[in-house]
Structures are given as C-alpha cells and as structure tokens.
Amino acid sequence: MKTFRTHPIGIDQGEAVLFSEFADGGEMWTGEGPRERRSAITFNQPFRSIPAVQIGVSLWDVDTSSALRAEVMAENITPEGFSAVFRTWSDTRIARIRVTWTAIGEVAHEDDWNIS
Questions:
Q1: What is the pTM of this model?
Q2: Beta-carbon neighbour count of residue 9 at 10 Å?
Q3: Which residues are CB-neighbours of 79 under 8 A, at least 6 positions away?
Q4: Mean of the per-residue pLDDT values of the chain
C-alpha cells in the first residue's frame, strides 16, 4: 500500500497509441516470437515522489486466427513519467494498441518550503 503524508494528492490521466502496424506491415502484425513496443509517457506536471500508475488497454485491433497473447505494463516509473510497455509472443498478430493510464501521487503545494 502506498501511503501519503499531508501533501495534496494529484491524479493525472492520459491515453496513448503505442503502435499501429497493420497498414505498413510492421513486426507486431507480420512477425512471430517475442515482440515489444515501448512509449515514453510524460506527466502534465511532476509528482513529488514516484506515483502509483495503473495502465490498461483501451483499444486493441488483433487477428483472431491465433490465440491472443499480450501483456501491458508501466515500467521505469519516475515523478516525471514512465514507459508504457506492450509485449506479445508466439504467432499472435496485433495491428494496433491504444492504452489508457492513471497516475496518483503526492504533488507540490505552494506552501512547501525548499530548505536546501
């Protein structure tokens, strides 16, 4: 569990297309085996510390002739942003993926003191 001190809590949300590879025959659509796509996400303003990030698929365009194998994660989370990561493997064919994300954490306040 992430606990917060007395600082204000901020919530930032967004959406990102991680890839669209059907039209140009990209590896996610034509390839096999382990494949990965990463997209850098920057928060609208930095958090005071590393926030909790929830990520999920909001659109998937997939070939249904094989099993759907997929993983979506938030990695390398910092107060400024994170990497949205999509992975698939075997013979799964993915045309495009869009994700939504929500970050919750402490934000700076105008009454904060900087004693450095």
A1: 0.88
A2: 11
A3: 43, 46, 47, 48, 49, 50, 51, 105
A4: 91
Residue with tokens 């990102």: 16
DSSP run (H or E) holding 101: strand 94-106
From residue 39, give the alpha-carbon distance in Å to each of 20, 72, 86, 103.
13, 11, 9, 16
User: Hey, CA dihedral for 107, 108, 112, 116, is it positive or negative?
Assistant: positive
Query: What is the spatial distance between Cα 78 and Cα 65, in angstroms, rounded to a whole number?
Result: 38
Mean pLDDT across 20-39: 92
Tell me the residue type at 24: D
CA distance 1 to 18: 29
pLDDT tens-digit readout, 64-107: 898 899 999 999 999 999 999 999 999 999 999 999 999 999 99
Give the separation between CA 7 and CA 111, rounded to whole angstroms. Answer: 10
For the record, the structure tokens of 32 come out as: 């096999």
* C-beta atoms surrounding 53 within 10 Å: 20
